[in-house]
Design goal:
The protein has 181 residues and is α+β, with helices and mostly antiparallel strands. The protein is built from 7 helices and 4 strands. Helix 3 runs parallel beside helix 4 and helix 3 runs parallel beside helix 7.
């Protein structure tokens, strides 16, 4: 291990691989609220965060589990639920008076068509002004879950356990999207 008077220990959250401070500084210098998009295997979260003298403050947020209030029956960790979570977060941000933001994907890889960009597309469709490149947003067919429905049709047994039929995911997506708008 390096020691000596010139060795600086990295900041704790950097050592824990939780924060990229160079990226965070660039986002904070924009002066706009951040649309923080975080994903896991089971859920998706979108938060609009402003920075102030007392630290970060969450102004609006949405979790994929919140979609159940609008009738969502499908799993909450897939691409369609990410889009709908972004749409819900965008609606809540507009209600809170936020009209623009910048996307903060944290340590996620910026893979075109990924769930973090589906969250961004949902927030843009809600009416938020977020700088973006159209090439990174998922195709509309993937946002609706048509790829999941096609895969479910090719299987002999149901894709999801429970009462939800994955072959009906695009229609279910359209119903919930209408309920959110």
């Amino acid at each position: 291990m390096a020691t000596g008077p010139r060795y600086n220990v990295p900041m704790r959250r950097r050592r824990e691989v939780r924060t990229d401070y160079h990226q965070r500084l660039r986002l904070l210098k924009s002066g706009k609220p951040r649309l923080v998009a975080r994903t896991s295997n089971g859920h998706v979260r979108a938060q609009l965060i402003t920075t102030g003298p007392d630290g970060d403050e969450t102004v609006a947020s949405a979790h994929s589990a919140d979609l159940a209030e609008y009738g969502w029956e499908a799993p909450t960790g897939n691409l369609p639920s990410a889009y709908l979570t972004g749409l819900l977060a965008g609606n809540r941000a507009l209600d809170a008076g936020i009209e623009e933001a910048v996307l903060d994907i944290g340590l996620n890889s910026p893979t075109p068509g990924s769930k973090v960009f589906a969250i961004q597309e949902g927030a843009i469709d809600a009416g938020l002004d977020i700088p973006h490149n159209e090439a990174v947003l998922p195709d509309w067919e993937r946002d609706r879950g048509e790829h999941i429905a096609e895969y479910a049709e090719s299987l002999e047994e149901p894709l999801y356990s429970g009462d939800f039929d994955a072959t009906e995911l695009p229609e279910h997506f359209d119903e919930i999207r209408e309920a959110l708008q």
